């Protein structure tokens, strides 16, 4: 799938619309959650609104992420202390990275978005391969 200029523009529009909605209704939802008493109908509407906000936040993140270009690429290295670096740059916990790994279901090598977790010994989170460490091809978007 190619990220065309038209798709980038549509992603930007989506990201902005999600942000505007979330900003507009955040205080409304906070007020509703802080009520001491509510009807069954109000409770349902709050649950649905929380679900909507969760999905909109995810859509906003994905739209933003898809518009970013690769800014660093290389081999992921884990030093003896357990910290990861990419091209000599330390990767703090919660850094989003993409790793090039084999997908058994597709039976091909693919890029997967994961994140760096843990402290002080870091690990790659978000893959079925829990023991991936040094030596895999990785990149960062920014």
The whole-number mean of residue pLDDT values reads 91
The strand order across the widest sheet is 3-2-1-7-4-5-6
Number of helices: 2
Radius of gyration: 20 Å
Shape estimate: extended
Question: Strand portion, in percent?
Answer: 25-35%
**Tally of structural domains:** 2
**Secondary-structure element sequence?**
HHEEEEEEE
Number of strands: 7
* SS-based class: alpha+beta
Features:
single chain; 142 residues; alpha+beta; 2 domains; 7-stranded antiparallel beta sheet; 2 helices; 7 strands; 29% strand
Written description of the protein model:
The protein has helices at 5-33, 40-66; strands spanning 70-78, 84-86, 89-90, 96-103, 108-117, 123-125, 136-141. It has 142 residues and is of the alpha+beta class. It has 2 domains: 5-66; 70-141, no CATH class. The longest helix has 29 residues, at 5-33.
Summary, kept brief:
The protein is an alpha+beta fold and 142 residues long. Helices cover 39% and strands 29% of the residues. The chain has 2 helices and 7 strands, in the order ααβββββββ.
How is the secondary structure organized here?
Layout: H1 5-33, H2 40-66, E1 70-78, E2 84-86, E3 89-90, E4 96-103, E5 108-117, E6 123-125, E7 136-141
Antiparallel strand pairs: 1-2, 1-7, 2-3, 4-5, 4-7, 5-6
């Amino acid at each position: 799938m190619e990220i065309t200029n038209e798709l980038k523009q549509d992603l930007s529009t989506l990201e902005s619309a999600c942000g505007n909605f979330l900003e507009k209704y955040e205080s409304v939802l906070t007020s509703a959650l802080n009520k001491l008493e509510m009807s069954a109908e109000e409770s349902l509407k709050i649950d649905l609104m929380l679900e909507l906000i969760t999905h909109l936040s995810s859509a906003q993140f994905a739209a933003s992420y898809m518009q970013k270009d690769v800014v660093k690429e290389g081999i992921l290295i884990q030093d003896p202390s357990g910290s990861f670096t990419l091209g000599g740059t330390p990767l703090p916990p919660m850094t989003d990275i993409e790793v090039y790994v084999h997908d058994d279901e597709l039976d091909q090598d693919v890029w997967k978005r994961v994140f760096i977790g843990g402290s002080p010994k870091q690990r790659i989170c978000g893959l079925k391969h829990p023991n991936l460490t040094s030596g895999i091809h990785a990149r960062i978007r920014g």
